[in-house]
Amino acid sequence: MTGTATILHADLDAFYASVEQLLDPSLRGKPIAVGGGVVLAASYEAKAFGVHGGMLGRRARALCPELRFVSGHFADYQRLGDAAIGVLGDFTPLVERISIDEAFANVAGSEHLFGSPEDMAKTIRKRVAAEVGLPISLGVAQTKHLAKIASQVAKPDGLVVVHPGTEGDFLHDLPVELMWGVGPVARARLAGIGVFTIGQLAQTPGWSTESLLGRAVGGKLAALARNRDPREVVTHRRARSVGAQSALGKKPAVEGVFGPTLRHLADRVASRLRAKSRAGRTVTVRVRFADLRAVTRSVTLPAAISATAILAETAEDLVRAALADHPNEAAISLLAIAVSHLEYNPVLQLELPYRLADEKRRPGTKKGTARWLADRAVDAIRDRFGRESIGYGSVVLGRRGAVPDAFRELAEREL
DNA sequence: TCTGGGGTCCTAGGACCC
DNA sequence: TCTGGGGTCCTAGGACCC
Description:
The chain is an alpha+beta fold.
């Protein structure tokens, strides 16, 4: 493979925390955490103490006594993330946004206008610093995977270019967990067969599922590790599923607990679907027990749904079935609902009031339509008066320990 | 590194069809 | 009636990413 390295990967450093430090200069250079009960994001200064996202606030404070907690400025995250990633768009239309703070760009067609990819990367970093005020790291390489690794190596606030022909040298001594798809489990399995660096991985023979390597990390990942696949930069990607979840601490596994919670989750998911004229055929629930073991149950319906009540009832049936399979589990710590097999849902589509429990009483299509129309009325009221004005209030959940809705929304994929 | 919330993808077994 | 092979869909579990 010859040619130029034209794939850029841009990644804002400790994004939420950097935004807080930008907005409030007194926080700069200090260990800070966004959030309260749970750490949503930590600054580099806090990470040095071992503080990281997802950690309980109490534990973070124990690790770092001078840690400052700040409540998030979520609207600013969206605005500043868009502004920073938007700079990439000035160099090429081929931008693939991965998340609020990360994107790929293919600048192959832009060199005659802006110079080498390395020059563009330097300019992007300067412009993001000057115009947005945030540190951003960039990786430049011939493939997405390699560009992503390069930006990780470049952090914080740096630039790494992997020139064609030097990939082997660049990767040789890097730890395997820098590869996309290698997490804690694969890392431990690889360590078990004596593989710690990407160089060692490259020298390990075989990638079939029967090989040592294949058994350690799975055939697909092993093949990917050796064949470096040139996945393309895709500008528009549709979500394949929509979901919502809620951690419960430790609650009894009874109808009175999971019923209201599932209705609330179903409301979140179904209203998002309706807002984008989408519906889905497969409903999946996840039940996590007190010991953190989790099970899933799913069902694929004959027709796609987006009515809150039907989704809630389907989810309740699935949770009941899951609990019945685990009669010794008395407490649940998390409930989740996801809808997949998404379809475009023309405005007036009817829904089958299909249920696991009473498939027989099917010809009640009227009931399904009535529910869908009622949902649309609720959606309209919320559009005018706000989400909390009507419906399954989050009050039901008791809110304690929950993350702000604004934070959840930042994580939502475009439907 | 005992854990929040939104997602994607892979694997494996079984049902069912041709 | 049994056997073989290929393909697709569904379900459950799990790893991983941001």
